[in-house]
Amino acid sequence: MEPRSTLTCPQCGHQETETMPTDACQFFYDCKGCGALLRPNTGDCCVYCSFGSLPCPPIQEARASGETAACCAS
Fold first, then answer.
1. Which end of the chain has fewer beta carbons closer than 10 Å to its terminal beta carbon, N or C?
2. What is the 3-state secondary structure (H, E, C) of 4-69?
3. Beta pairing class for 15-19 and 29-30
């Protein structure tokens, strides 16, 4: 599992590499480029699944084990 993901702001394109939480979903993220408040797209549990270079740790783990990806919500 890779703990860091690069978020790309859909408003301004700014990229920032962050360490993802492993014990909770990160539903909000303030873009460090333009200040936009990022929220997950419909159907995604967190900003990393929507705007990250890698999905959140629970999704990574589920994919690696071949299980259905239920993310943090389950």
1. C
2. EEEEECCCCCCEEEEECCCCCCCCCEECCCCCCEECCCCCCCCHHHHHECCCCHHHHHHHHHCCCC
3. unpaired
Give the Cα-Cα-Cα angle 13, 15, 19 (nearest 5 degrees): 145
Residue type present at position 12: C
- Cα separation, 67 vs 9, in Å, equals 29
For 38-49, write each residue's pLDDT tens digit. 999 998 989 999
Instruction: Give the DSSP H/E element, type plus range, for residue 70.
Output: none
Mean pLDDT within 44-64: 92
Sign of dihedral through CA atoms 28, 11, 41, 60? negative
pTM recorded for the entire structure: 0.87
Query: How far apart are alpha carbons 59 and 44 in whole angstroms?
Result: 10
Tokens coding 4: 């860091």
